[in-house]
Amino acid sequence: MDILKRIAIIKQILALLFRQLALVKGKKRVEDFAEAIKIYEGWFPGSKSYRNNNPGNLRYTQQAGTTGQDPTGFAIFSTYDFGWNALVHQLRIAINGVSQVYNPEMTFQEFFSKYAPSSDNNDPDKYATFVAGRLGLTIQDKIGQIEI
């Protein structure tokens, strides 16, 4: 393994450690929010989110880095980084109050009722409980308290 690959791996490990330290200190960051969504969406080889490089299972809206949409309307990203950045961007604009759909005063329960509506065969309350729990919060906490 060459030195550049080793450095890249060390950077990834350090980033994970710093994220965990932030959680221990009580800071909830947008990346932690995104990671919890990625886990709930079932990010693993063979899953739809994995095949589409779309860790948040975002609907296709001509996001940067997309190559189109799958038959069910979910974005297909050319790389994982494009998919991850689109998810983090979506969460940041929701937390900042810039989104036309979400706002920082929404509770996790309200957020997930729009992000993953029951009309799409989701269980928004279960989703909200999982993500909020991963962040050490409740479904009645507001998304605006997440640090961007």
Task: Explain what this protein looks like in three dimensions.
The protein has 148 residues and is mostly helical. The protein has a single domain (27-145), classed as Orthogonal Bundle (Lysozyme). The protein is built from 6 helices and 2 strands; from the N terminus they run H-H-H-E-E-H-H-H. The chain has helices at residues 3-24, 30-40, 48-51, 80-96, 108-115, 124-134; strands at 66-69, 75-77. Helix 2 (30-40) packs across helix 6 (124-134). The longest helix has 22 residues, at 3-24.
Q: In brief, what are we looking at here?
A:
With 148 residues, the chain is mostly helical. Helix content is 49%, strand content 5%.
Mind sketching the topology for me?
Blueprint: H1 3-24, H2 30-40, H3 48-51, E1 66-69, E2 75-77, H4 80-96, H5 108-115, H6 124-134
Antiparallel strand pairs: 1-2
Pick out its properties.
mainly alpha; 148 residues; two-stranded antiparallel sheet; Lysozyme
Q: How much of the polypeptide forms β-strand, as a percent range?
A: under 5%
Which CATH architecture is right?
Answer: Orthogonal Bundle
The geometry reads as globular
Note poorly predicted spans: none
